[in-house]
């Protein structure tokens, strides 16, 4: 099972980390990418996105830097840290085990 | 520094916290992007705006939540950054210390001495003065005794009728107890007899102190009556030592003074009363109905204030009681407010006594030692900082602000100080143990002294403070300008040299001055102590050996048996080879317990304002006493062998003669002790010279000498606690076996109590003064050493710095002698300034400690002159080495530009 945290928190954090594993993005891009990739099934509430990002920053899993967006405006870009990568691997592994454990029960018969 | 931080620092002028501005900017971007996307999808600007609102929920709330999260993040990250910086600073400091082992050892030892000494003294101050006594609500305990101002007795005992009357009439005290201290012979099954400190107390005392036995019970009021069943309560240490901690000891009987007494309780560990170090607690056995022995003062009282009463209200009540005491006890010896007062003060103040002044003096002294150590450290670090100015310049170029350099200096100083403190604590712990073992009676409450949390906090505090002080001292000369200047320069360290030299010299002068103050203090105390040991106590103590003996009631129920035993013993001891003279007496000079009694002087009426007819010391002796002790008889004669079976006679001392017979010859006059109506009149046959009784530094009181043999015959009483004194050229060790044998042949059950030479007895009575002067001498020695090392270091440094100048001078023809003189002049100038400053300060401060001095004025010229000369010599020695080194400078080498 994934770490014993608030499952909502945990899922959101893992999604953000995974998004950033594809490269640095600013907050809006992160939300968009998750929405697109999940076929609009998961849409992150704007109100909880930034507190989550700041929390991940505090934990040292991501790091931020002001840069210039595609449209030439100042934006804050987030990047994974080595610690973030390790945490992501752990989350993914945890999720796989969860699925492997639950599938035989819920997805058969 | 992360790019983020710098960006934040460069941000604009509107006053919102940078974090909040950042969060707002980020959210604005998101809103803008979202709006753009919605407009691109075809919504109007109003619809897009509404949709954005809907997505964000309540924008104000979302933005507030985001700001909170961001602030939390910033705080955490800042803390992590600071901790990382601190860790790297500490690692760097430790690395630097490891690379310079010589410097590190000197520095750590210097600090260990300074900080350790402070910790040691503070733990004494803490245990003795600051810690509350070990009873519940100890501040409500008052110590009560009496005072006879016209007789010069500031502290005197209370008599049983006074105790009972005060207890009955007081409202301010919830309960009052009485006690006396002493020692008894204890024989527990099988073990050898031993002498144990004992306290006799009233049953009420347990309620006053509020401490119950941890096993068994205290004795009851019924057991506290004169003819009650004998019971005793054991102290914890005695219980463990002599009874193996056996709980079945309750109900068992032990032999005390030859009497079997039943053990009814065991007190908890650490329990004591007024530092008596007692291990046995026995009932006083006073009869509350008897109010006759008004003049027999031998009790101390302790009272616990009633709830609602205060020390002030108790005092007021006592004043009132004193003015009306005559109503309760008409006639002589009623307490009153002028000649015979009762007084009270908090128990703790009385236990601590005069030690307070001495302790604060010690704490001040040891603080001075620390200051000297700090000055040394500051100089050391200043010198080291100069060799590191390139390192700082590079750091500054790499972006380390002044704040960073400051923090680094601080950390280096504090790391050094903490290392020194750790070593110092170890030194303090062992030093204290050794000191207390050597001088057990030197301070009260010795059991309460140790490295407890307050002492550790104190040590950590002064380590941090001193570390910050001398850590930052070099900063005074490493300024930003110097940093950039240092990068450019090629070796001419001219920037600020003059200022630095002034600072270093100033520190050296201060060190010498502080050392002078300490040495003067130690000198005064040592001289004082020396004078005390030279006090003429009234007898010749060379070649005198003494021990105590107790003849208990059980084995000597009749007074004649005691007199006979004493006669046999002195005869036998006189026959011991090497023993020239033997005597026995009740009180052992120079410091003995007062044994005062009312005395009737024939033909002298009690004058209203005159001295009460009371003698301070009753001394019962064998006939050889004056001869053995070599006490001169100034009038009439001493005791002789014919007196032994003869009529009742006494010898008085000079003070008694002066007090009661100022204009007449006392020889032939008569007086009578108060031990009953059938006591005959004793005739005065002689006047003996005064002998010190209340301590070497106390005034001599009135004293009356009785022949021991007359006790059984005329008074029906013979004291059971005696001291035997022998005059012999042989050493104590050589005499002891023969003495033990002589005693043992007469009575196997008697222990020799504390065999000592009279010189030792003397020394023991001066234990506190000796302890104080020894300690201060040690501190002064350490201070002198540190100051000498400091002066040596500074001069050495100066010689090094001026190498080129010296080389030039020598090349231009200056001789070695001239160079030597030049360096010496500078060194001695520092020393002279320090000595003068120190002497002036010592003069001002010694007044504060004048209560600790005996026979020496605080401005004693001999001490001051000797100290000045001694320090001058030390300073000269400290300057010679660097001066000699200066003369060996090779001009050619020195003039090469490096």
Q: What does this 3D model show about the protein?
A:
The complex is a heterodimer of chains A (109) and B (898). In chain A, 58% of the residues lie in helices and 15% in strands. Chain A is globular. Chain A starts with 6 loop residues before the first helix and ends with a helix. Chain A is an alpha+beta fold and 109 residues long. By secondary structure, chain B is an alpha+beta fold. Helix content of chain B is 53%, strand content 14%. The longest helix of chain B is centred in the N-terminal third of the chain and has 41 residues. Chain B starts with a helix and ends with a helix. Chains A and B meet through helix 3, strand 2 and strand 3 of A and helix 1, helix 2 and helix 4 of B.
Q: Class by helix and strand content of chain B?
A: alpha+beta
Rg of chain A computed from alpha carbons, rounded to a whole number of angstroms: 15 Å
Query: Helical stretch count of chain B?
Result: 27
- Rough outline of chain B: globular
Count of alpha and pi helical runs of chain A: 4
Percent helix of chain A: 55-70%
Instruction: Compute the number of strand runs of chain A.
Output: 3
Largest interface: A-B, 21 and 30 residues
Quote the beta fraction of chain B.
5-15%
> Any idea what the shape of chain A is?
globular
User: What is the overall pLDDT average of chain B?
Assistant: 84
How much helix, percentage-wise, in residues of chain B? 40-55%
Can you count the beta strands of chain B? 24
Strand content of chain A: 5-15%
* Span of the ends, CA to CA of chain B: 37 Å
- Biggest pleated sheet of chain B: 7 strands, mixed
In terms of structural class, how would the helical and strand content of chain A be classed?
alpha+beta
């Amino acid at each position: 099972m994934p770490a014993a945290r608030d499952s909502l928190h945990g899922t959101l954090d893992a999604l953000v980390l995974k998004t950033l594993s594809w490269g640095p993005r600013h907050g809006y891009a992160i939300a968009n990418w998750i929405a697109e990739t999940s076929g609009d099934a998961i849409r992150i509430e704007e109100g909880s996105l930034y507190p989550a990002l700041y929390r991940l920053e505090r934990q040292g899993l991501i790091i931020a830097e002001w840069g210039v967006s595609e449209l030439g405006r100042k934006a804050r870009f987030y990047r994974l840290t080595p610690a973030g990568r390790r945490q992501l691997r752990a989350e993914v592994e945890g999720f796989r085990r969860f699925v492997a454990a639950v599938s035989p029960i819920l997805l058969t018969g | 520094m992360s790019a983020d931080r710098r960006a934040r620092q460069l941000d604009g002028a509107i006053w919102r916290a940078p974090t909040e501005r950042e969060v707002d900017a980020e959210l604005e971007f998101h809103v803008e992007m979202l709006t753009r996307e919605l407009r691109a999808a075809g919504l109007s600007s109003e619809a897009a705006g509404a949709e954005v609102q809907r997505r964000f929920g309540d924008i104000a709330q979302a933005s507030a939540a985001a700001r909170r999260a961001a602030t939390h993040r910033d705080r955490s990250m800042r803390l992590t950054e600071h901790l990382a910086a601190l860790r790297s600073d500490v690692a760097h400091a430790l690395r630097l210390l490891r690379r310079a082992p010589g410097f590190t050892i000197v520095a750590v030892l210097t600090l260990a001495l300074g900080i350790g000494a402070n910790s040691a003294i503070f733990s004494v101050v803490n245990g003795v003065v600051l810690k509350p006594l070990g009873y519940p609500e100890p501040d409500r305990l008052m110590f009560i005794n009496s005072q006879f101002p016209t007789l010069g007795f500031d502290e005197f005992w209370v008599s049983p009728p006074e105790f009972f009357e005060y207890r009955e009439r007081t409202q301010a005290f919830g309960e009052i107890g009485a006690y006396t201290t002493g020692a008894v012979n204890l024989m527990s099954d099988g073990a050898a007899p031993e002498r144990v400190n004992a306290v006799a107390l009233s049953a009420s005392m347990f309620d006053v102190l509020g401490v119950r036995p941890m096993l068994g019970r205290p004795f009851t009021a019924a057991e506290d009556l004169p003819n009650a069943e004998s019971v005793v309560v054991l102290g914890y240490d005695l219980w463990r030592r002599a009874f193996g901690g056996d709980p079945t000891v309750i109900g068992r009987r032990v032999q005390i003074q030859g009497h079997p007494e039943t053990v009814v309780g065991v007190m908890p560990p650490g329990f004591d009363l007024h530092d008596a170090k007692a291990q046995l607690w026995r009932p006083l056995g006073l009869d509350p109905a008897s109010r006759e022995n008004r003049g027999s003062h031998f009790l101390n009282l302790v009272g616990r204030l009633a709830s609602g009463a205060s020390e002030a209200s108790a005092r007021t009540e006592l004043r009132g009681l004193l003015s009306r005491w005559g109503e309760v006890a008409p006639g002589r010896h009623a307490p009153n407010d002028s000649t015979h007062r009762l007084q009270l003060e908090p128990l703790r103040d009385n236990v601590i006594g005069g030690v307070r002044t001495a302790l604060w003096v010690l704490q001040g002294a040891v603080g001075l030692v620390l200051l000297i150590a700090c000055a040394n450290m500051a100089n050391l670090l200043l010198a080291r900082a100069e060799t590191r100015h390139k390192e700082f310049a590079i750091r500054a170029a790499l972006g380390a602000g002044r704040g960073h350099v400051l923090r680094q200096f601080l950390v280096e100083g504090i790391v050094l100080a903490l290392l020194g403190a750790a070593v110092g604590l170890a030194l303090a712990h062992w030093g204290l143990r050794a000191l207390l073992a050597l001088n057990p009676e030197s301070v009260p409450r010795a059991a309460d002294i140790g490295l407890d949390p307050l002492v550790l906090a104190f040590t950590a505090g002064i380590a941090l403070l001193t570390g910050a002080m001398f850590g930052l001292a070099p900063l005074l000369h490493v300024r930003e300008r110097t940093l950039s200047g240092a990068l450019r320069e090629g070796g001419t360290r001219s920037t600020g040299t003059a200022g630095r030299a002034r600072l270093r010299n100033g520190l050296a002068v201060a060190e010498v001055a502080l050392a002078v103050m300490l040495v003067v203090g130690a000198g005064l105390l040592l001289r004082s102590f020396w004078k005390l040991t030279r006090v003429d106590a009234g007898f010749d103590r060379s070649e005198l050996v003494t021990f105590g003996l107790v003849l208990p009631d059980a084995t000597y129920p009749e007074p004649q048996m005691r007199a006979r035993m004493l006669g046999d013993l002195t005869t036998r001891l006189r026959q011991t080879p090497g023993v020239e003279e033997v005597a026995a007496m009740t009180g052992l000079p120079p410091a003995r317990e007062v044994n005062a009694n009312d005395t009737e002087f024939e033909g002298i009426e009690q004058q209203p304002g005159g001295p009460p007819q009371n003698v301070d010391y009753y001394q019962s002796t064998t006939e050889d006493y004056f001869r053995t002790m070599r006490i001169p008889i100034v009038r009439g004669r001493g005791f002789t062998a014919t007196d032994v079976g003869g009529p009742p006679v006494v010898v008085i001392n000079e003070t008694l003669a002066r007090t009661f017979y100022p204009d007449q010859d006392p020889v032939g006059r008569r007086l009578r002790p108060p031990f009953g109506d059938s006591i005959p009149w004793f005739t005065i046959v002689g006047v003996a010279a005064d002998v010190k009784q209340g301590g070497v530094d106390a005034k001599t009181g009135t004293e009356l000498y009785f022949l021991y043999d007359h006790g059984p015959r005329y008074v029906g009483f013979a004291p059971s606690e005696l001291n035997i004194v022998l005059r012999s050229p042989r050493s104590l060790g050589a005499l002891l076996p023969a003495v033990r044998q002589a005693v043992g042949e007469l009575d196997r059950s008697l222990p020799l109590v504390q065999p000592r030479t009279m010189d030792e007895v003397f020394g023991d009575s001066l234990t506190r003064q000796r302890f104080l002067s020894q300690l201060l001498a040690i501190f002064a020695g350490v201070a002198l050493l540190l100051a000498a090392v400091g002066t040596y270091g500074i001069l050495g440094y100066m010689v090094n710095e001026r190498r080129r100048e010296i080389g030039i001078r020598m090349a231009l023809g200056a001789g070695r002698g001239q160079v030597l003189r030049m360096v010496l002049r500078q060194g001695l100038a520092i020393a002279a300034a320090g000595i003068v400053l120190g002497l002036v300060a010592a003069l001002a401060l010694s007044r504060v400690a004048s209560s600790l001095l005996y026979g020496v004025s605080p401005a004693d010229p001999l001490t001051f002159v000797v100290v000045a000369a001694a320090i001058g010599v030390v300073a000269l020695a400290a300057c010679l080495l660097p001066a000699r080194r200066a003369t060996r400078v090779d001009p050619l080498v020195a003039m090469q530009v490096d």
